[in-house]
Design goal:
This protein is mainly alpha-helical. 73% of the residues lie in helices and 0% in strands. It starts with a helix and ends in a 5-residue tail after the last helix. This is RNA polymerase sigma-70 factor, ECF subfamily. One of its GO terms (biological process) is DNA-templated transcription initiation.
């Protein structure tokens, strides 16, 4: 049954259609959550289950205008972000354009951005700050040194440490993605 028809039946309280929706997307959502919470299978399962509970409890109020799958992943994404904020992994929100899933290729890229974002946030503060200024604010090493009141050599050292630590933290595919995003910095 197509998702829109499933959703219409779920809104009417059809538990069988809800189970069908759950069975259709649970595995994909679980894998996304599993990767987003660094391989914690119990937490990933809990986050996905919470997502489906929210859908069921609010089914009569929800008016899904996009795809049901897209909506499920948005709820899951928000649940993951809430959990990570509570764990103090994030000190600032993830930008929506990084997180909102589109087609499968975009969705894979967005997951890589999330993993990269989480890895960068785990770097030591000065190392992270130097990398952020270089990568996201496009400052030169000298501008970073002036901004942080450190030497240009310290900036180079911190960039080298960021490179080394991210190479250890990220799998090869994500690290290559990092190099592509930060092209020309190293």
């Amino acid at each position: 049954m197509e998702d829109n028809n499933l959703w219409e039946n779920i809104k009417k309280g059809d538990r069988n259609r809800f189970k069908e929706l759950h069975d259709k997307y649970f595995h994909q959502m679980y894998l996304y959550a599993f990767k987003s919470v660094d391989g914690d299978s119990g937490l990933a399962e809990e986050l996905v289950s919470d997502c489906f509970i929210k859908i069921w409890e609010n089914r009569k109020k929800l008016n899904i205008e996009t795809s049901v799958k897209h909506y499920l992943f948005i709820i899951l994404r928000n649940g993951i972000i809430d959990h990570l904020r509570k764990q103090k992994v994030f000190t600032e929100p993830i930008p929506m354009d990084i997180m909102a899933p589109g087609d499968e290729k975009d969705f894979d890229d967005q997951r890589q951005y999330v993993r990269l974002y989480m890895a960068v946030k785990k770097l030591p503060e000065q190392c992270r700050r130097v990398l952020e200024l270089a990568a996201f604010e496009s400052l030169s090493y000298q501008e970073i040194a002036d901004s942080l009141q450190i030497s240009k050599n310290t900036v180079k050292t911190q960039m080298g440490r960021a490179y080394k630590q991210l190479k250890e933290m990220l799998d090869p595919k994500d690290f290559n993605f990092f190099l592509m995003v930060c092209e020309g910095l190293f």
